[in-house]
Amino acid sequence: MDPTMMLIALVAAHALADYPLQGDFLSKAKNRTAPIPGVPWQQALGAHVVIHGAAVAFITGIWWLFFAEALIHWLTDDAKCRGKLTFNQDQAIHLACKFAWLVIALQHKGAGQ
Questions:
Q1: What is the pTM of this model?
Q2: Nearest-10 crossing angle of helices 41-60, 87-110
Q3: How confident is the model at residue 113 (pLDDT cuts 50, 70, 90)?
Q4: I want to staple 49 with a disulfide (CB 3.0 to 4.6 A). Which of 15, 17, 70, 79 is the partner?
Q5: What is the DSSP string of 6-27?
Q6: Rounded CA separation 50/37 (Å)
Q7: How do the domains of the chain map onto residue ranges?
């Protein structure tokens, strides 16, 4: 995939996964500081980060980026929910990761792996 198109795909997948695919339910349920009764926040946050991790792995073709994206997304969103990061800081970290995944994918492709 062309690098520019990969970056567009990563950013677009992020926007889809963080907005319409997350929805109101996951947005509220993933928050440990104000959980929805009967819904484990870890399960909701886990579902959210799996969507993100899968998108990154599918776009880059690198299986282990699933885990890198999911872990960083988990830590970032949890910090935002706990008031440690602002919304804009959260989004900046997510987008910085997409640039990092692009660089990794290009190096991976260049190494012939």
A1: 0.93
A2: 40
A3: low
A4: 70
A5: HHHHHHHHHHHHHTTTTHHHHH
A6: 22
A7: 3-110
